[in-house]
């Protein structure tokens, strides 16, 4: 018994309202379609159709089974289409959004490399540090650095972990001292990432058990600006390793409170549900996963996490 073919025949009979019309749709004889449905009923030991000389209609059990068949056949078609599109060459336009610093340091060269592989692809890369709605603003792919992926409406693919590092310049530490525990940060100048200079706090500890209010001379929503301020000795920063890793390697910045690591965050690739079968999106996500994971662009020999 070809169960899938029998299911297709059954759904066609329900939709067409009869065996003859279903047979024409399937390019089969009426008797072949009838046999497929009868075999399915025998297998299920359930009558699926009411048959009269004038029309054919589903039984209650047939209506419920029809709904399940439609979902199963749709999933199968989608899976086959996905495999087909994996072998298609990415082409057309691709709109990407990413944070400014991560985009300039790591994403931009990777996008250029990806485009070299697919010359029929046209990319619009938008870098900014404001929180955007990818669906509303029409982006095919959005990269976001966060503790948790966003809510419904978007598929989130974890590309790589993104360790945060608490650090400061040697000159600042020589002048103000080295904090020994998270509560000591209350007495230090802390350079905060964000949009507001008031009511800020940092959370430290593997179990996120220490939340400390902080204050300082600078608040900014760009990591490169905060890095420059830290290098100038203006205070303590908490920034991703991909921003401050080289400075930690060169001892221009020194890690602090290493027994109280900041909460883990990740780099996510986000895309609308209706983009998950797009060849250009699936190929780019696979490419970025390979490039940004362990041993890749971020976690190479210069990374502070490998010190």
Q: What attributes does this structure have?
A:
Arc Repressor Mutant, subunit A, alpha/beta, five-stranded mixed sheet, 3 domains, elongated, 307 residues, D-Maltodextrin-Binding Protein, domain 2
What's this model, at a glance?
This protein has 307 residues and is an alpha/beta fold. It has nine helices and 14 strands. It folds into three domains: 3-86, Winged helix-like DNA-binding domain superfamily/Winged helix DNA-binding domain (Arc Repressor Mutant, subunit A, Orthogonal Bundle), CATH 1.10.10; 92-162 and 265-294, Periplasmic binding protein-like II (D-Maltodextrin-Binding Protein, domain 2); 164-255, 3-Layer(aba) Sandwich (D-Maltodextrin-Binding Protein, domain 2), CATH 3.40.190.
Can you describe what's shown?
The protein is α/β, with parallel strands linked by helices and 307 residues long. The protein folds into 3 domains: 3-86, Orthogonal Bundle (Arc Repressor Mutant, subunit A), CATH 1.10.10; 92-162 and 265-294, 3-Layer(aba) Sandwich (D-Maltodextrin-Binding Protein, domain 2), CATH 3.40.190; 164-255, 3-Layer(aba) Sandwich (D-Maltodextrin-Binding Protein, domain 2). It has 9 helices and 14 strands. A hairpin with a 4-residue loop joins strand 1 and strand 2.
């Amino acid at each position: 018994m070809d169960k899938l073919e029998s299911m297709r025949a059954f759904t066609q009979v329900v939709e067409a309202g009869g065996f003859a019309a279903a047979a024409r749709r399937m390019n089969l004889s009426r008797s072949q379609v009838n046999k497929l449905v009868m075999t399915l009923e025998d297998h299920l030991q359930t009558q699926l159709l009411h048959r009269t000389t004038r029309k054919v209609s589903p039984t209650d059990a047939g209506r419920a089974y029809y709904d399940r068949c439609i979902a199963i056949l749709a999933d199968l078609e989608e899976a086959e289409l996905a495999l087909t599109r994996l072998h298609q060459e990415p082409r057309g336009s691709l709109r990407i959004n990413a944070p400014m610093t991560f985009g300039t340091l790591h994403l931009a060269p990777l996008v250029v490399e990806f485009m070299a592989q697919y010359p029929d692809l046209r990319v619009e890369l938008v870098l900014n540090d404001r929180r955007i709605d990818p669906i509303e603003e029409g982006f095919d792919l959005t990269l976001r650095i966060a503790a948790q992926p966003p809510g419904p409406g978007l598929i989130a693919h974890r590309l790589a972990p993104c360790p945060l590092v608490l650090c400061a310049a040697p000159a600042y530490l020589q002048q103000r001292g080295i904090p020994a525990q998270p509560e000591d940060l209350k007495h230090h100048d802390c350079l905060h990432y964000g949009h507001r200079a008031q009511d800020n706090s940092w959370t430290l500890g593997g179990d996120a058990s220490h939340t400390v209010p902080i204050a300082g001379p600078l608040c900014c929503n760009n990591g490169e600006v905060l890095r420059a301020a830290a290098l100038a000795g203006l205070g303590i920063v908490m920034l991703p390793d991909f921003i401050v890793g080289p400075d930690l390697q060169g001892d221009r910045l020194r890690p602090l409170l290493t027994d109280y690591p900041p909460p883990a965050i990740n780099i996510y690739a986000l895309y609308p549900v209706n983009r998950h079968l797009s060849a250009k999106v699936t190929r780019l996500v696979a490419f970025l996963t390979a490039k940004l994971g362990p041993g890749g662009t971020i976690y190479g020999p210069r990374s502070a996490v490998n010190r």
